[in-house]
Amino acid sequence: MTVTLADVAARAQVSPATVSRVLNGNYPVAAATRERVLRAVDELDYVLNGPASSLAAATSDLVGILVNDIADPFFGIIASAVQSEIGGPGGRAGGERMAVVCNTGGSAERELTYLTLLQRQRAAAVVLTGGASEDPEHAAAIGAKLRRLGDAGSRVVLCGRPPADGAPDSVALTFDNRGGGRRLTEHVLGLGHRRVGYIAGPVDRTTTRHRLEGHQDALAAAGLAADPRLTLHGPYDRRSGYDATVELLRREPALTAVVAANDTVALGACAALRDRGLSIPGDVSVAGFDDLPFSVDAVPALTTVRLPLYEAGARAGRIAMGREEEPPGGIATVHGELMVRGSTGVPGGGS
Amino acid sequence: MTVTLADVAARAQVSPATVSRVLNGNYPVAAATRERVLRAVDELDYVLNGPASSLAAATSDLVGILVNDIADPFFGIIASAVQSEIGGPGGRAGGERMAVVCNTGGSAERELTYLTLLQRQRAAAVVLTGGASEDPEHAAAIGAKLRRLGDAGSRVVLCGRPPADGAPDSVALTFDNRGGGRRLTEHVLGLGHRRVGYIAGPVDRTTTRHRLEGHQDALAAAGLAADPRLTLHGPYDRRSGYDATVELLRREPALTAVVAANDTVALGACAALRDRGLSIPGDVSVAGFDDLPFSVDAVPALTTVRLPLYEAGARAGRIAMGREEEPPGGIATVHGELMVRGSTGVPGGGS
DNA sequence: CTGTTAGCGCTTTCAC
DNA sequence: GTGAAAGCGCTAACAG
After folding, report:
1. Contact A299 B294 (CB under 8 A)
2. Does residue A29 lie within 7 Å of nucleic acid chain D, judged by its CB?
3. Which nucleotide is nearest, taking the CA of residue B2 and each C1'?
4. I need a surface site. Which of A5, A113, B281, B348 has the fewest CB within 10 A?
């Protein structure tokens, strides 16, 4: 009932081997023969059996992309960029590779599960995006898993996280979160702010720690002690920004600036401030991180650190496909750019 | 070198069949035996060969999700929701299905290509999201392809588009774009606006047409003629909203309201108005569609039509997995909710 | 509850 | 340039 390659071969009066060669286009076949085969394929509406090809050839056209949550534009943009680079000629028949997007929710367990699933699929490559868990056990488990994936033939690329221990042949495109965090807070301090709240991401994640360290670096450089009461942790979402801002205001009514772990959190902070009748940046300045598309349209426009997410994702995709040389040492640092916009101003600027 | 199921069987002193049964958990196996097998799996670091399983079982754990662009939160949210429902027990070994996300860029050709690729993978299900092309040839080709996919055993679910011609066994969750568009414009007209610009989506897409028709329905109901000069088409992006607003203002300086095809476009419209020194809604009211997460944080908050994207995606995922009954007739309409917020007001409200 | 036995549909040496 | 044949690693009857 289901038409197979043998059916096509019979119809085209050639051997199955020839049909395979035509379909994969990786072997010389006489033009006339090819023509005949292609016609038969068309007439029979034949579609190659992917699992069978993959089994026989011991490779697949799937590329795994691990993200915290694909609904978050940070990850959506990276994933979109990776995809744009994995298609095109070079793969098996059809020349198109497909992206398997895995939502880990930031859980190392789910990350491991998905890595196993991708290993099972014999994924051609795996791109891990966003920060990593810093739990030593998890980190080790994931490093080991990545090594095994690499050994099994999958190319492994990290995009937005530091190199994994124990996975020597994986490539890492890391974001300069620490430097970005530092410059952002330097900017805020440079405006004259001294009571600065910091809304950090979830604990035990590389991104959270690096951005926070950058913030603290800047405070230290300015001779300011980091007041632990003014640093709150929470998820990378609007709600966290809202709640943390309320709490910061409670702890320090004289607060004049809030630096958030990312733009989404910053938007929540803005909402909380507005709801309390505080003006931005007149009463309180706000800064984010990432420069997601909506940030420039916030009112006032959000001061943030622009991360070239699309470019980084595209590069990760090319490296994963072997279309771009790996960076020396397997590591490249992607820098952010400070975007000073309307949401930050001098303290006490009034409404 | 690569360890196979046979190796595990040897080590556990059982037959390959037993190992398979343990791994798939879909067959009674003595606890002691299972234990032994699991231990062998662990010791050998064995990972099932997905393509081989899929070939032998004639099914796969892959679910295709077609989106215009995964970087767009509209699609990211739906995709995220679909994914949340396709995992869990019920699948093959591991119980986790994986999502293959395909960026079509709105191109019917790419959509067809990806559908073929998914057919090749013997995808367990395919979810097509967002509006469809209205080109009759494309529509027919896609309908035929969907039927073939269904015949081959993939469950097909449409989320956000009308039923496809020629694909009788596919399920459609359609958005009430027309009704939403009508209510939105009714609201604007109800405020007293008479010179209303409309920034539509790309031509020849179902979503574009339905929203526009809703807008025109409302105009007609109010006894107003639709002024063709005040309707512009463009992609669903910020830039389109910006440029179209500039052009609308040129064509009709007395414009008092802009209704946009979606929130992203509306944000672009807001930016254009602000850049021209016009206040929202004092000088010009703005409305969007979809109620994406950032819309409530726009200043002023965006009046829009809330589409339950996550809920719809989750439902599509459940139906795709056979975990929820199909709607009667294979069609269900998902309604939007008018969200009246600060970006719309009475005309001439001033700054 | 467990083992035996056929394939699933394709790719790929190896000959010709 | 093309064909023949031997698997790739697993699952699913069918026995027992």
Report:
1. no
2. yes
3. D9
4. B348
Nearest to A148 among B45, B148, B297 (CB): B45
A66: Cβ under 7 Å from strand C? Answer: no
Q: DSSP assignment, residue B343?
A: T
Note which residues in 34-53 of chain A have CB less than 8 A from chain B.
Answer: 45, 47-53
| pLDDT for residue B351 | 61
pLDDT tens for each residue of A22-51: 999 888 889 999 999 999 999 999 999 999
Helix count and strand count (H, E) for chain A: 12, 12
Q: Give the minimum alpha-carbon distance from B260 to chain A in angstroms, rounded to a whole number.
A: 16
pLDDT at position A89 is: 45
Share of chain B above pLDDT 90, in %: 91
B287 backbone dihedrals φ, ψ, rounded to 5°: -135, 150
Residue A63 to residues A40, B47, B98, Cα–Cα distance (Å): 30, 18, 12
Confidence (pLDDT) at A26: 84
Say whether pLDDT at A91 is over 50. no
The kind and range of the H/E element at A66 are: strand A62-67
Map tokens 């999201």 to a residue.
Answer: B129
Confirm whether any atom of chain C, the nucleic acid strand, is less than 7 Å from CB of B152: no
Tens digit of pLDDT for each residue in B225-259? 889 999 999 999 999 999 999 999 999 999 999 99
Residues in chain B: 351
Compute the distance between CA of residue A35 and CA of residue A13 in angstroms, rounded to an integer: 12
Q: Which of A63, A75, A120 to mutate to test the interface with B (most CBs of B within 10 A)?
A: A120
Is B204 a residue whose pLDDT tops 90?
Answer: yes
**Residue numbers in A near B113 (CB within 8 A):** 94, 96
> Which of A45, A48, A297 comes nearest B298 by C-beta?
A297
At residue B92 the predicted structure's pLDDT band, cuts being 50, 70 and 90, is: very low
Q: Which residue has the tokens 């440079």?
A: A190
Query: What CA–CA distance (Å, rounded) separates A6 from B267?
Result: 55
Strands A285-287 and A257-260: parallel
Q: Longest C-alpha distance within chain B, in Å?
A: 84
DSSP state of A60: -
pLDDT tens-digit series, residues A113-149: 999 999 999 999 999 999 999 999 999 999 999 999 9
* pLDDT band (50, 70, 90) for residue B87: confident
H/E stretch holding A24 reads: helix A16-24
Instruction: State the average pLDDT over residues B312-317.
Output: 98
**Contacts of residue A325, Cβ cutoff 8 Å, sequence gap at least 6:** A319
- Is the pTM for the entire model greater than 0.70? yes
Query: In whole angstroms, how far apart are CA A242 and each of A111, A348, B206?
Result: 28, 22, 38
CA distance B143 to chain A (A): 15
Q: Does any CB of chain B come closer than 8 Å to the CB of residue A148?
A: yes
State how far the Cα of A5 lies from the Cα of A14, in Å rounded to an integer.
Answer: 11
